[in-house]
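Weekly structure sync, notes
Attendees: PL (lead), two postdocs, one rotation student
Agenda item 3: pending single-chain targets
PL asked that the sequence for the first pending target be pasted directly into the notes so everyone works from the same version. It is reproduced below exactly as submitted, 423 residues in total.
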Amino acid sequence: MPRLLYSFLLYLLLPFTPVKLLWRGIRQPEYRCHLAERYGFYGVRPRQPVIWLHCVSLGETRAAAPLAQSLMQQYPAHRILLTHATPTGREAGEQLFGDRVNRVYLPYDTPDAVARFLNHFQPEIGLLMETELWFNLIAGCKKRNIPLLLVNARLSERSARGYGRIAGLARQGLQSLSAVAAQTEQDAERLRQLGATEVTVCGNLKFDVEPPENTLARGLALRSLLGESRPVFLAASTRDGEEALILDAVERLAVPHLLTVIVPRHPQRFDEVAALLGKRGLNYARKSVIAAADTPVGDTCTVVLGDTMGEMFAYYAACDVALIGGSLLPFGGQNLIEACSMQKPVIIGPHTFNFDWVAREAVNSGGARRVSTAGDLVDTLNELFMSSETRQAMGSAAYRFSQGAGGANRRILELIGRFLPHG
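Predicted structure, written out during the meeting:
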């Protein structure tokens, strides 16, 4: 009964989904592409047996890179199918893997659309990244005896409370999964309390993500555009409302010639942040413009807007100190592991429930500092930019932390091997 009601509500909402996609397409035109896939209609099916990996958006796609690479190596006779829900996730899949994988949108979770998807691709195994619980999809896989695993699974206290409001449906879905690979024991316990049974703690795949081979070269090239002798502060993956707080803090800093680089999390906000910088009368430059012209920013430029995608490792390589966005306001925080792996001192705000264990352990390691207020951010930045020794020590601690927490990829592959023998 819980799933019947869930499906009924989805069907009520389904007529409004084209309007939503077209509306989102105003700011991000890619939402108007591949519309039929959203409803379970696809083109040519791969000829090889399919291993299906669902990565909803950009972060999950990047995190899944080590796993996808390993799957291609261990199962060369199979074809990897990546499914996404956002254009940024789909674009990241293309950047990372090119034509070595197939990429489509996962359909809306109505029974008929799910049936069309599963009947078309007939995956031998399905892997859902992080917290992607789609109950008709889970039921459809169980009906067809398709092993379905939730991997790199995380569940914050806030999300657990949300699923607790639909406890019967959540329990039914979790118990229908073939296995769950949780990031931490805390995630595992929350999932068990909701009804999951086959739960194993495997760690976080994001620790196994390797920087691209040309990261250092791209970082050096970017730093030459920013100014090799200027102190550079990076605000990475910022969310709506955070840019204003960051700019307020930067205005109070006592750091001569500081250059602030702001990289919004979502590309549809690039113009919005540019408008904010213009409204404040700041002398700013767009990264896309200075890179195309191969022209360094002038001494009077105080802010660079990072309006390019797929270059976060290069941004980290080019900065001196990195603030992780999504953590100053209650968005839950963005991935800080990449900054740690690039040996940068990391600053996080008070809201990191999406990366609770990672944030806590990064702070305990000495590689990250947590700030609670804008005043704390000002004090911390002033301190770090006054002492290169402190920055170097924090960067080294961050790197040791990131290198010591790997291994999730190997453990998840072992779990997958229980359901899909190698070869």
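Discussion points:
- The two ends are 41 Å apart (CA to CA).
- The CA atoms of residues 147 and 183 lie 20 Å apart.
Action: rotation student to compare against the earlier draft before next sync.
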